[in-house]
Design goal:
There is one protein chain. The protein has one domain. It has three helices and two strands, in the order αββαα. The protein is elongated. The two termini are 35 Å apart. A hairpin with a 2-residue loop joins strand 1 and strand 2. Helix 1 (15-28) runs antiparallel to helix 2. It has 91 residues and is mainly α. The longest helix has 24 residues, at 47-70. It has a two-stranded antiparallel ribbon with strand order 1-2.
């Protein structure tokens, strides 16, 4: 029995999830800047630092969303079924 056939889903099985991860990681690293450049300074830090921090937070939000919305574990379904059976027995 495969995980997909028993109702289990994982974010890593979605290709678009990986595309989102790669885009956020690639955009968050300042690899595209010239060596030694620090550009405009905002609140005492180069602008790319703020961009990297913002994209790191976006990455965390994206992964959290994927874990909450795309992860469907069998254990959750089993617990729900047990709770329903317990409710029927008590009611």
């Amino acid at each position: 029995m495969t995980p997909a056939s028993d109702g289990q889903r994982e974010p890593i099985r979605f290709a678009w999830f990986w595309v989102g991860v790669l885009v956020l990681v690639a955009a968050g690293a300042p690899w595209y800047l010239r060596r030694g450049s620090f550009g405009p300074v905002v609140l005492g830090l180069p602008y790319w630092v703020w961009k990297s921090v913002a994209l790191s937070i976006a990455f965390c939000v994206y992964v959290r969303w994927a874990c909450l919305r795309l992860w469907s574990l069998v254990e959750d379904d089993e617990e729900r079924a047990r709770a329903e059976r317990a409710g029927r027995l008590a009611g």
